[in-house]
Amino acid sequence: MLKEGSMLPLMEEFYTIQGEGFYKGTAAYFVRIGGCDVGCHWCDVKESWNADLHPPTRTDIIVDNALKYSDVIVVTGGEPLIWDLTLLTDGLRAKGAKTHIETSGAYPLSGDWDWICLSPKKVKLPKPEVYKKANELKCIVYNRSDFKFAEKQAAQVSDDCILYLQPEWSKREQMIPYIVDYVMDNPKWKVSLQTHKYLNIP
């Protein structure tokens, strides 16, 4: 059932304001799927990593719950593309919802998406097809070497993909000045901040 995507290990779901990237400030319903083996040491949702800790939930129930609150549905994780998301997006789109995903791109793309936020990680790079379909590229800046990594990632996305640099939350005070200078010197990039944390919301 999990492999087919008719059930997914649901960690949490909640209605809030998108805090990051192109849609920041937009009301959206978040569906957080358990399971991730990318293993970023600075991950702020490490409790999502073990999918066995999160109850397998019928995809049609996830769809019905989401649509009670919003027609903008953001699927995140963990790493949601570990699972086949075709049935989830089919169910959402059939009822008029806009489907967004936040992914490292480390697994093959499944599902039908209106917006793909690709946030690559060094330990497990994105699949080629995810680069090409990404609407926004969000590179996390933990230290100054991450600018070189970000440029390598930007070279692989499409020309109309929006490029963001976002400070890792625990390093924001140290890295924001470097990000500001970098974006001013390289204006193809934009700054993304985790505004939901400044707003003290999920």
UniProtKB/TrEMBL annotation:
Residues 23-202 form the Radical SAM core domain. Substrate binds at I17, Q18, G19, R32, T76, P202. Binds 1 [4Fe-4S] cluster. The cluster is coordinated with 3 cysteines and an exchangeable S-adenosyl-L-methionine. Binds 1 S-adenosyl-L-methionine per subunit. Its cofactor is [4Fe-4S] cluster; Mg(2+); S-adenosyl-L-methionine. HAMAP family: QueE (MF_00917). Belongs to the radical SAM superfamily. 7-carboxy-7-deazaguanine synthase family. This is 7-carboxy-7-deazaguanine synthase. It comes from Aquimarina hainanensis.
